[in-house]
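Materials and Methods. Structural model of F-box domain-containing protein. The 530-residue sequence of F-box domain-containing protein from Moniliophthora roreri was retrieved and submitted for structure prediction as follows.
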Amino acid sequence: MDCPPTHFRGTSDDSRMVCAQLSQELAALDAEFEQLHATLIHVAQKREELRQKYQTARAPLSVVRNLPTEVLQSIFNYYLPPFSVARASEGPLLLGRICKKWRSVALGTPELWTSIHIVVPVAEYPSDRNIAGKCRDLREGVETWLSRTGNLPLRISVYFNAREQDARLLGEAAKMVEILIPYLKRCSYIRLDLPLQCLQPLNDIPGREFQQLETALVKLKDPFSLSEPSNLSHGNPVSFLSDSPRLCSLCLRDDRPSRYLRPTVNWSSLKDLSLKLVGSRPVELFNIISQFTNLRAFELIVCYVDRHSGPPSPPPEQHYTLPHLHDLTVSVPCDFIHEIFNILILPSLQKLHLENHQCVSFADAFTSIKDLCLRSSNSLHKLTLNLTSDSFKPMAPFLELLRTVPSLMELDVAGYEMENAEYDEFFEALVLKADGMDSIPCPNLRKLVIPDSTASDEGKLVEFVSSRCEVKASCPVAAWDSVRISTYRKTLQTALLAYKGQVEVDLRTHWYNNHRMGLPISFDVFDEPL
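The predicted structure was written out as tokens:
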């Protein structure tokens, strides 16, 4: 074995000492080499894994980058929500932050910028000195946003969550409305959820300038006692509602909408109307509403009526006819239900939704609806009831109403809380019997939504449902298309299993059982109002 030359001329002991020292150094280097080699192998493996992940993630990007501009524009239009909030983390502003090409496409597509939801900033704390700057920056951003829309129709929504401590921001919100005036002429949809004071820039702007306005939602609120509407300068800040030639859908939330709904205006284009009143009697508006000759859908919500504001309405001297109205939703205090229905004639009514949660007895309401149907000679197809009461509600007026509308095809009483005896009487009256087919209420009823009472007779419910699941072709009574029952009883689900195609049983759980089992407590809304 060849050894490297050396000039060392020591004794044997010296040689052993040198060899031992060199051996230790060599062993240390070998250990360091093994450690570095293992680290290198680990890094190489991790590098390869990351390379594969990168290639997988990059593959779709390469496809997207090669898409034609027209395809990207269609994708962007589909992706965006109906109303994009004016902030960098949403809507077209977010698309413009992805890459240079996406930014170019977003800026060159006016359709992406035609809808905007503007939230006026509020002070985070009473001494917030930056709020004026935030409002100024927002106004500049909104102007830049709308400048990218070309000449396309616009959809604009403005929201200001006004609180008493934000009274000093009324001017800032008014400035926001002011910068929108040049663009409102191109609006097909506008939503204003603002204090009335903020709409002063719109004072007496003629509605004929709003040639493209089709839908308007205006929610006016007056939270500041120091600025009541009666103290405002003269003028009508929402006059454009009255004179817009193409306005067909109007939603107005105010305590006195009669300030804006003037009978001298031509409302013939209006087809959908929703009113929410606070503190006024609904009958006062009907001499105006009767001018809406082409109204198709009408929603009337009355939150509060001062019963001491005046004497009860006398019997109607005349009736108001809405010849084309086919969809009516009414949510008013019980005392005024009959006032509304007693003055109307609705020959085209097909859908009626009645909601009330403060009623003592619904007998008068059902009688008024029955008289309305008889007086109007209409063909009511769908009836939805969302009614609650702490007292017993006699079933006779309700059944008499059902007998008055043989055209009824859909009945939704999921929100109508009945007593146990009322359930049994209802099922017994509508069950199909061989000897009483001619007198059964609602012979054309095909769809039913109903809750179940755990204390009612389950046998009568099963008999009622099953009797109209299998009906012969010669029978004058229609068979069920669908029945939906909300229940807590598992036995009912089993009993109706044979009619699974027609009957849907929603098995619910008592909230206290969820609590005992450690499950979260939830109160389901079985059927939301229209």
